[in-house]
Structures are given as structure tokens and as C-alpha cells.
Amino acid sequence: MFLLQFRSVLIFILFVAAIISFFIGDAESAAAITLIMLLNAVLGFSQEWKAEKAIESLKRMLGLKATVIRDGQVAEIDATDLVPGDIVLLELGNRVPADMALLEATSLQVDESVLTGESEPVSKDPGAHPDDTPLMERKNLVYMGTTAVNGRGTGVLVATGMRTEFGRIAGLSQSIASEETVLATQMDRLGKNLGEVSIAIAALVVVLGILYGLDPVTMFLVGVSLAVAIIPEGLPAVVTMTLAIGVRTMLRRNCLIRHLSASETLGSVSVICTDKTGTLTRNEMTVTALATVNGRYTVTGTGYEPEGAVQKDGDPVDATGDPDLHALLRAGYRCNHAILVEDGGWHILGTPTEGALVVAAKKAGIPEAGTAGPKPLEEFSFNSDRKRMTVIHAAGEMKVAYVKGAPEIILERSTRILRDGEEIPLDPGMREVIRDHFERFADEGLRVLAMAQRTLDGGVAWDADSVEQDLVFLGIAGILDMPRPEAKEAVRLCGTAGIDVIMLTGDAPRTARAVARELEMRGEGVLTGADLDRMDDAEVLDALRRIKVLSRVTAEHKLRIIGLLNGEGKIVAMTGDGVNDAPALKRADIGIAMGIKGTDVARESSDMILVDDNFSSIVAGVEEGRREYDNISKFTRYLLSSNISEIVAITGALLMGLPLILIPVQILWVNLITDSISALALGTESAEKDTMYRRPRDPESQLLNRRVGASLLIIGIWLGVLVILAFMGRYADNLDQARTLAFTALVIFETINVLNFRSLRVPLSVVGFFTNRWLVFATGVTILVQVAAVYVPFFQSLLGTVPLALTDWILLVLAGIPILLAGEIYKTITFRKPEREQVVERAG
Predict the structure, then answer these.
(1) Most buried in the list 196, 525, 703, 724, measured by CB within 10 Å?
(2) Within a domain: residue 43?
(3) Is residue 359's pLDDT more than 90?
(4) What is Dmax (Cα atoms) for the chain?
């Protein structure tokens, strides 16, 4: 990890410069360059090491045990000791230790969201299936890493380790090579260009000097000095420190960055491919609607917090005053194994769907819902064939059966319906009303459950077929894994920032469409995994321009989508929390894993972790990433304009027959001490007001283009000429004083010039002169450091300076002010009126 900090082209060039400086006797320059390289490496290493330690603290998949039958004896062993053929017992709450084929199952339901993205628990039963059955429809198999959330089962291990579905996906992740980030590519390109320019200019000056008759050894030293002047030695360290500051800022906004460059990459994202379950949604099922024969009810609140209300026509309803609603909710929480627990936050012991029914009853004012009530006298469990569950409870002297299940099944077995607390015959008209209700619920993407009851007399046999007849239909509940409250605004902000949001989920199309509708996502229709398999790449890309919701997708589908988007020049972020997301997280330009509900596999495949699992934190991260890139652009251009002025001053003086205007150690002083302080302060500049109202930048764009290069050249020539004039004013009297004046002039001019780079297009009158307190501090430090360089004996000896008069300082400041005025006039003229009004409005 430490050695990887030295892989930049710019670092390599600095390393060569340090070696050359050492061998020509310039030990001070060699030591300074080496120190700055080590500082850069230590900063980058320490940040990545902290990130890895933070990730370790998030790990929770530890010490997995399995209960097996070996030699006729039940034993608990480490999951790592399992082998194919072992018989494993599963109970409620157990994590499945390896892929298993079921031999027995009783009401077994498994949460496969970490593997498939399916938010609903899947019912499992023994049996067989065709070889081509999709992963999500293999009811007789349970998979490593998933969790039993209801019932129990016994299975035989059929695969362990890398042969499991979990292992297959891990293999996909391992096969994906890491790619350079956009910033790393651009910095390498800049380093190569600077290296070529430095060698060319240095060689040209050496040749010209020798042709003028100057000593070749002296000219070689001058050439090395010029090469050092061209390359901004402080740039790698300033970039690293700016990214490190950004990483700390992102962590305060719940984004844990694993690698420094990932923070900037997030700012260039043009597409976010997001998982649904646990990312856009809370991964907590919620009853959002209820219906009885008297009409529809709306349930407010999300998740398992019993906060909210049941409303009808906008008015709160207390279940104790509505016998039909009370009966519906009572059946829901009685025919139920879930318990509502408050332990540092509300959560459910049991299946998410049953938990949603309990919470709905709590919201309606039924206090006993969600508690461990009396044990049922009898239970007929749910399975995929019956599609219903029944429990029998004592109710005084009577016995009452409570039934819940698929609405079409419950309706078929019902002969009566509850209206205003009275049981009345269920006529065909009422059946149509009920069917209309649950079809509307289904169209809205809700999972629909129906509830019924029956009072049992002594003549009814207590078997499922006898009890589950002649039922009294009570109503239906519509259940949805609700979107996070902040996700809707986050999706909207992505739209204003020019970022496409594409939902990739393992859930059913209706469910995915319902969540997309709640979030007001752009696009039309839903594309399924089966659709993707039938389409070629061109058809998929065309569809993605219109369709932003993809359901029933697998890990392979996600990889294909990301690859196609990358081929279109898109910078892709992928969010996810499950094992099935890991390959896509690694393949994406920036993988974003969930910190709370994410698996270790997902986190370790990611570049960034959302500490709060909140999709809206991504938007905060994008804004911070854009701010970082803007600031890197600002101080890179500032440093290059400063270095151009040094080149102009040194080369211009040489061509005019003057002696070396700045000695090498003075050049390093300016680059490493004064320039770097100002550049680092530029790195703390706040995000500009329209940061999230701009389209993502083109990944092929460069830090420097022709227009920018021309403006930097103009500034550099201007500053360089002023420095030469300052030198010539004293050269005839005293060479040391002339160099000191030129040296100080360069520092003052560049300190004034840094204000031009606080914004590359907005005048200071809009940005604010004192809004960046760190730049104000850096300006003060730079002046004090330069005063020390001129007046402190130690620095005078090191830098070859002599004292200056106060009038010299005043004249240099006055000479530098036009540099700032010119920049302000240019930005005021070019700052378009509509854009100006927009930025000023957002600033207000």
C-alpha cells in the first residue's frame, strides 16, 4: 500500500530531478524534493490505512457455526469444516453455511436479498427443478450467506467454498482488474507533458548559453534549475492533502472513502446504477394501504418505527372505533410470529412481512400487537403450494381461526364478509369490489395479503382443509419496502446535476416500478433480466436511454450494463449491499457499498462505503467530489502560472545577458514553501453555488486546454517580466540585493495572483473576498515566511538574501495589484448575465 503511493509519473520525474540535483552537488534541492515525495506518500498511505481499519470495524460476518448430523449424532461445528454430503439443520435466524438441497422443510423462508436482491423472503420446499431454472426460482435450494427468517429445515450440502453461488460471484469479482481513476490518468498525462516540456526548454537554454560562449558546466546547472522550476514539486503533495481533507469532509457526510482518488472520481460520475433493496429503500417492509368492504385506508410512516397513523379520507382512524378495521388488523397480528423490539431503535424478530402487519396494528392504536401473546392452539403453516397460513386461538369459551395469505386463495374460501361488525353473505358484487381493490394494490407494486377468520364449533375437525373453509373475509393489506424519505430529493438532485439514475434490482417488475414511481424517477417502463438476455448490446444501450428501471437482474447482467455504459464514455457509480452486487461494485468506476446492512464481500469490493446506508449521502459525496476536482484544477493552474513566471524570469534574463536571476534553492523555496501553502488553501475553497447544477465533466477533458494554456502563458509572461524589471532596477548596484528583490517580487506577485484562481469564472465580488479563511491565513503566513527569508540570518545564509527597505515592499505590492484587477475585469466581462443572476441567487 505504501509503495503504490509512488506510482505517479510526476513522482517519478521528481525522483529523477532529486538524483540529478544530488550528483551535481545541489544537496539542498535533492533533500527538499525527496522530503516532499515522502510527505506525499505518508499522507496517502495513512489515509488508506485508516479507511481499511474503519472497514474492519464494520465487519460482522464472524465465527459462523453450523449444526450437523454426523454418525447419527447432532453436533455444532465450524462452517469451515463442512464438506459436501453433510446433513445440516437450519433454524429461524441461522445463516446458511453453504449451498444445500433441502430434504425437509417446515414453513421455511429464507432472506436471499444479499444474493439476489429480492426484498421478500423466499419460501423453500424439498423437491426438484429443471437445470435451467433461474436462481431466484429454485425453491429446493438454499444458498451460502442467506438467512433463515422463518420455520426450519434440513438439507444436504451440495457445494462449499468457491463452488457455491456466493463463491461464483466472488470469482467474478476476482476476475475484474482495477483501473486507473480519471484524476490519476490526467495527472500522469500532465506529468508526462511537463517532463517533455522541462527537458525541451532546459536543453534549449543550455544550447543557447553555450552558443553565447558561457561555461558548459554553469549552463548545465542553469538547465537543471529550469527543469526544477517547470515541474511543480509541491503539486503531488497538495493534491494528496486536498484529497485527504476531502475524505475527512466526506466522512462527516457519512461517506467512507477507501482510496484517496475515489473521492474525486465520485465528482465526475455521470451514471449511478443503484440497487433498490436497502439502498433506495429501507429494506423494512411497511403496510401502506388497507382495504375492507367499507373502503380504502392509508397508513403513514415507514419502517418498523410504530410512528404514523391509519387514515381514511385524510382523517386518522382509531381501530377501536372501527370494528371492521380492528378485525382485519387483529387477524394480521394474531396470525403472526413477529415480535416488535425496541433496542437502540425499532426492529423485528421474524419475517419482514409479518413485522409490517404488527407495526400497522400498533399505528392503529392496538397496544398488544407485536408482543409475545398466547401460543396458538394449532397452526397450519404457509408454503408455496398452500399460499396461506392459519392459527387457532382461544377467545373466551370459543376457538377462532385466523387466516392470512394470497387474496385470490382467501377470497375463494370465503362465504361471508364483515361489514360494520356484522357477518353478512359475500355476494358476487362484493367479490368484484374486493378483486378491484387487490388488483389496484398489485398495480401499485404492493405485495397484497388478505385476512379472514372463522369461529369454530365442536363439529369442525382441526385439519387445514376443514378449518380453512366457510371463512369470513376481513380485508386486504398492501405492503411495500418503502423508499427512504431522503431518496426522492437525492434522485431529483441527481437529475439537476446531469446524472442518470438507473435502478438494478432482483425484485419483481411491479415492485420495482412502484418504488420508481414513489421516487419520481425519469424513464418509461421496466426492463427485465429475461429482456436483457434476448437483446444485443446496441439494443440494450438504446433501451437504457429510455428505461431507468431494470428488474430480475443477476450479477452478470449488472456487469454487462456497467461495461456497456463505460463503452459509451460514462463514468459509472454502482451502489449495492449484497454478495450479488460485489462484481459490479468492483467493475464500476466507483463502487459504493452499504456500511450497516452491506455484506463484507460488498464492502471489500467497493471504493466507498455509505456509513448510514443512505442514498442521499451519495449526492453529498458527488458535490464534495466536484468541489475537489474544481479546486485541484484551480491550484494546478495557479502553480503552473507561477512556474511559467519563473521560467520567463530566468530564461529572459539569460537571453538579455544578465546573470542567473534566481538560484536553485530560491526556486525550490517559492515552489515548496510559498506556492504550496497558497495552493493548499485553494484546495479548501468551498463548492461554488452551482456545483450541483452543472453536467458531469467529460472524462476525456484535460486539466489544461489551449484556452487555459494561453491564459496561463499571458499571466506567466506578465509576472516574469515584472520580476526581470525588479532585478534590473538593482543589478547595477548590488547583485545580491537585486536577486533578493526579484525573489521577493516573485513571492508577492504570486500571492496576489492566487486570488485570481479562487474561481476560474466568477468574480471575487460574487465569491466574496474573505469567505476562504484558510486562504487569508495562508496569505499572512506566506508574507511572514518571506519576511523571515529576507531578514533572519539563518535564512539569509541558506537562501543568499539580504535585507530590503520598506519602500521596496510597498512598490512591489503596488506593481502586483494590476494582476488582480486584470483578472477581475476579464471575469466580469465574460461572466454571462443569466449565469451571474443564477449564481448570485443561489449564493443568497
Answers:
(1) 724
(2) no
(3) yes
(4) 123
CA distances from 473 to 362, 442, 469 (A): 22, 19, 11
Residue with cell 550528483: 23
In this structure, are 591 and 628 located in the same domain? no
Of 483, 510, 545, which residue sits at a domain end? 483
Quote the CA–CA distance of 673 and 282 in Å, as a whole number. Answer: 50
Which is more confidently placed, 383 or 417?
417
Same domain for 544 and 489: yes
Judge whether 443 counts as a catalytic residue.
Answer: no
Q: Which of 99, 275, 577, 607 is catalytic?
A: 275
Q: For position 580, which CATH number holds? A: 3.40.50.1000
- One domain for residues 655 and 752: yes
Long-range contact list for 104-108, CB < 8 A, 24+ apart? 104/153, 104/154, 105/151, 105/152, 105/153, 105/154, 105/383, 106/151, 106/152, 106/153, 106/381, 107/150, 107/151, 107/152, 107/381, 107/382, 107/383, 107/389, 108/142, 108/148, 108/150, 108/151, 108/152, 108/153
Helix 616-655 with 706-731: angle, nearest 10 deg: 40
Is residue 474's pLDDT more than 80? yes
H, E, C per residue of 151-207? EEEEEEEEECHHHCHHHHHHHHHHCCCCCCCHHHHHHHHHHHHHHHHHHHHHHHHHH
- Confidence class of residue 135 from pLDDT cuts 50, 70 and 90? low
Domain that holds residue 411: 281-483
Phi-psi region of 302 (alpha: psi -120 to 50; beta: other; left: phi over 0): beta
The alpha helices in 683-805, defined as continuous H runs, are 706-731, 735-753, 764-767, 773-791, 793-799
- Three-state helix/strand/coil letters over 53-91: HHHHHHCCCCCCEEEEEECCEEEEEEHHHCCCCCEEEEC
Q: The C-alpha cell of 164 is what?
A: 457455491
Region 573-577 average pLDDT: 85
CATH of the domain at 759: 1.20.1110.10
